[in-house]
Structures are given as C-alpha cells and as structure tokens.
C-alpha cells in the first residue's frame, strides 16, 4: 500500500527535477547568448528545494532574460542601463521587426488556444460537464472568440 504511493512521489520528484533542469538549461543558454561567457559554469539542481515557489522564481528569471535578449537583439545599447542610447532609423526598424515577430507569435498562440478551447467546449457538451467544473477554465474559454486586440492580460496565451 505504501510502495505505490512512494513510487508515485518519486516519479513526481523526478518530473519536478526535470522541470528545474529544463528551465535552468534555458536560463544558461540565454545568459550565454547575451553575456558571452568566457567559461561555461555548470548549474546544479538543489534537490532539497524543488518547490513550486522556487520553480516559479526560475521561470521569472527566465522571462526576464528573454526580455533582455529581445531588447539586446534590437540594439545592444538599449539593454545597457549605462551610457548613451542610440536610437536611429535602423534601431526603429529593428523594433518594428521585433513587434511584428511578437505579434506573429501572439497570433499563433491565440489560434492554438482557440482551437483547444473549442475542442474542450465540444467535449464538455458531449459529456454534459456541469457548469461548476467548466468555471475553472473560464480564463481560457473567454478568449475563444477574442480578437488580437482583446487579448491583453499577461500570460493569457502561455
């Protein structure tokens, strides 16, 4: 009776550890792209703290690095808090290109979310799912017919 529970807990710990490794690898990769390190410093997963709080902290760090990378790709001086900023026509063109790329990603995510939400609604109808159970997913299904400009809440498409 205890053995299956223990095995399940070990499996969840292994899965969580893999999530930590994946996020830390992404952080390492983006950091290397942005800061061009002279040596690669291996990261270590702290098995004593595999909490969701710590994982969310790593996700926030990753998100910050992704923003920094996007800004530095537009123009290296924009991500630098010191020194002068060089904003010329080329920089503005790169910003416009970055905006177009991000808009494309947003549209792809919206389409995927709308397709999944439509499927979910169809399944709910087939299974006669109670409204109370559907309410949990209200934040997803409310965007099913939304236009690009109507989806403005952070992380609504991730």
UniProtKB/TrEMBL annotation:
GO terms for molecular function: microtubule binding. Its main location: cytoplasm. GO terms for biological process: microtubule cytoskeleton organization. The keyword Cytoplasm applies. It is found in: Cytoplasm, Cytoskeleton. InterPro entries: MAP65_Ase1_PRC1 (IPR007145). GO terms for cellular component: cytoplasm; microtubule; spindle. Belongs to the MAP65/ASE1 family. This is Microtubule-associated protein 3-like.
